Amino acid sequence: MATFTGKVFVLGDDIDTDIIIPTEYLALKTIDDMRQYGFYPLRPELPSLISKGDIIVAGNNFGCGSSREQAPEVIKALGVSCVIAKSFARIFYRNSINNGLLLIENSDIQDVVKEGDELTVIPGQEIRYKGVSYKIGSLPDNLMDILNDGGLVNAMKKRNGLI
């Protein structure tokens, strides 16, 4: 996975899946239809502000709540390159990997970054922000393969010679 730079949107702690995509919008036919309602209860304007490659930085317990796969799918559909948080709900974490959305745990960056700033991510190595390097852990090769292939379905198709 290549190095990337993006504009930051800062969110707080306990951003649950009902905030990421509220239940009433799950009846829409496609993720593309749902994405305009991403984060609606918290910040209704957010989908119109996010551009491809932007980064969400959040606090503890990001993605708590239900196990709906639409939550990471909506974030990915908004164009977010990754979510950096102090911690993630475990089922959300795996759903995100399976849907090709990179998540990075880091306990320091949320306390220093400001909304609208840019930061650079070198997956598996570090986050760079205003000349300071914040170390991050690497993911196992099998999870990186899933992310690099755009999600679990594509990874399995590739593994089975279907793409």
Summed up, the helix count is: 7
> Uncertain segments of ≥5 residues (pLDDT<50)?
none
3D shape: globular
Characterize the largest beta sheet: strand count, sense, and whether it forms a barrel: 7 strands, mixed
Q: Per CATH, what is the topology? A: Aconitase, domain 4
So, CATH architecture? Answer: Alpha-Beta Barrel
Helix content range: 25-40%
What would you report as the Rg, rounded to the nearest angstrom? 15 Å
Within the largest sheet, what's the order of strands?
A: 4-3-2-1-5-6-7
Count the domains: 1
CATH class reads Alpha Beta
Sketch the topology as an H/E string, one letter per element. EHHHEHEHEEEEHH
Going by helix content, strand content and strand pairing, the class is alpha/beta
Quote the average pLDDT: 96
* CATH homologous group name: Aconitase, domain 4
Spatial separation of the terminal alpha carbons: 19 Å
Strand content: 15-25%
Task: Please provide the count of β strands.
Answer: 7
Write the layout of secondary structure elements.
Elements: E1 4-10, H1 17-20, H2 31-34, H3 46-49, E2 55-58, H4 70-77, E3 82-85, H5 90-98, E4 102-105, E5 118-122, E6 126-129, E7 132-135, H6 141-148, H7 152-159
Parallel strand pairs: 1-2, 2-3, 3-4
Antiparallel strand pairs: 1-5, 5-6, 6-7
